[in-house]
Design a protein that fits this description.
Helices cover about 40% and strands about 20% of the residues. It is an alpha+beta fold.
Length: about 250
């Protein structure tokens, strides 16, 4: 139940709206465009190592293959919109080799994204945001360096293997680079070790499953790659600052 993986490869009219409460997600990327709108509270977002702090009615517009992560600052509700580049084909064709210098926009009024059921409603909203972005910021050429391609391969490896035994040595063998070199490069790009990232990725998946499925905590633990409940509880509590049980049922004392 991972809503960030392989997005933008699901069809030319792909448009997905997801509302999340007190949710965080580690560094990732995808071919799709992504917008994050803050319905309530505050949200920290980092795009290509540039930091943003979103407040109510702020919207961040993330371009394809930009490295990004976000973290809730507590009592935060956000709407994540992920859509195929082809849905805004004219804009995509003109700006596909460029990225905005400033990804942040402030919307003047609230939007009911769940009411955008027709492709016409969706395109109307998306192109209006594109227009606002063009008016509000300059654009620069997107960087496509060798190290970015390497880290993309490692992140894809984690997406495909986090439910099982997933190691940096396995990733190094998969991408064909030296283990020590890859370890240092991964740390430099993501600002965390491979193990730290893997744990954050697994726990983010667990958070989604806890709030959106009827799976038991033990089933979720196993599904997210943890063979021992003790380790799952320790990592979950360390990262989320509460137990899985409390996160699943926040209203229960």
């Amino acid at each position: 139940m991972v809503f960030f993986e392989n997005h933008g490869m699901n069809g030319d009219d792909f448009f997905q709206v997801t509302q999340l409460t007190d949710f965080s997600f580690p560094v990732h990327f995808h071919r799709a465009y992504e917008m994050i709108y803050t319905n309530k509270g505050e949200l920290y977002v980092c795009i290509d190592k540039k930091d943003y702090n979103l407040k109510k009615k702020d919207l961040i517009f993330i371009f394809p293959n930009q490295f990004h992560e976000f973290r809730s600052k507590g009592n935060t509700v956000i709407t994540v919109i992920i859509f195929a580049p082809e849905l805004i084909g004219d804009f995509y064709n003109e700006y596909k080799s460029r990225i905005p210098e400033n990804n942040l926009l402030q919307l003047k009024h609230s939007w009911n994204f769940n009411m955008m059921t027709s492709i016409y409603d969706q395109k109307s909203f998306l192109y209006s945001v594109c227009s606002r972005l063009i008016e509000s910021t300059l654009f620069q050429d997107a960087k496509d360096t060798k190290y970015i391609k390497i880290i993309c391969q490692v992140l894809l490896y984690i997406e495909e293997n986090y439910k099982q035994n997933c190691t940096l040595r396995g990733a190094a063998n998969n991408v064909g680079y030296d283990y020590v070199y890859l370890s240092k490069l991964f740390c430099k790009v993501t600002n965390m070790t491979f193990t730290e990232y893997l744990n954050r990725y697994r726990i983010s998946q667990a958070c989604y499953l806890l709030r959106n499925t009827e799976m038991s905590i033990e089933e979720i633990s196993v599904s997210c790659g943890y063979n021992h409940m003790k380790t799952f509880y320790r990592n979950f509590t360390e990262i989320i600052k509460m137990t899985p049980k409390k996160f699943k049922n926040p209203d229960n004392t």
